[in-house]
Amino acid sequence: MTVKIFIKRKVRDNNAVELTLLLKKLRALTLSQPGYISGETLKRIDNKDECMVIGTWRSLEDWNNWVNNPQRIEVQSEIDRLLGEETEYAIYSY
Questions:
Q1: What are phi and psi of 80, to 5 degrees?
Q2: What's the chain's average pLDDT?
Q3: Which of 23, 27, 80, 85 is the most buried (most CB within 10 A)?
Q4: Looking at residue 11, what is its pLDDT?
Q5: DSSP H helical segments within 1-94, as ranges?
């Protein structure tokens, strides 16, 4: 069953450059993961500090394998530390 993962982050101008580098690193790692189909990043129009990443995965198992990947955990921890709060995740199926 294909799943969509909604990843919400609060981004501030003072950390945008460093965050962009971390997100590119995370994205590069994601592209080689089994079950990864696609992803897109959206910026919220009415709240400039919020962005949403929508990832599509072949299965919940593939997503869970990625979530528990030590490389992802390391980069995600850096992202959360930079933002000062944990990234929010929501998982949906078709």
A1: -65, -40
A2: 94
A3: 23
A4: 85
A5: 16-31, 60-67, 70-83
Complete domains list, the chain, with CATH: 3-93 (3.30.70.100)
Q: What is the pTM of this model?
A: 0.90
The contacts of residue 44 (CB under 8 Å, 6+ apart) are: 50, 51, 52
Q: What pLDDT score does 48 carry?
A: 85
Output the six-digit token pair for 34. 């089994």
Which residues sit opposite 41 in a β-bridge? 53
Q: What is the pLDDT of residue 23?
A: 92
Instruction: Give the per-residue pLDDT at 4.
Output: 98
* Letter string b/e over residues 20-37, b meaning 16 or more CB atoms within 10 A of that residue's CB: eebbeebeebbeebebbe
3-state secondary structure of 7: strand
In angstroms, the Cα distances linking 79 to 2, 47, 62, 70 are 26, 20, 22, 14
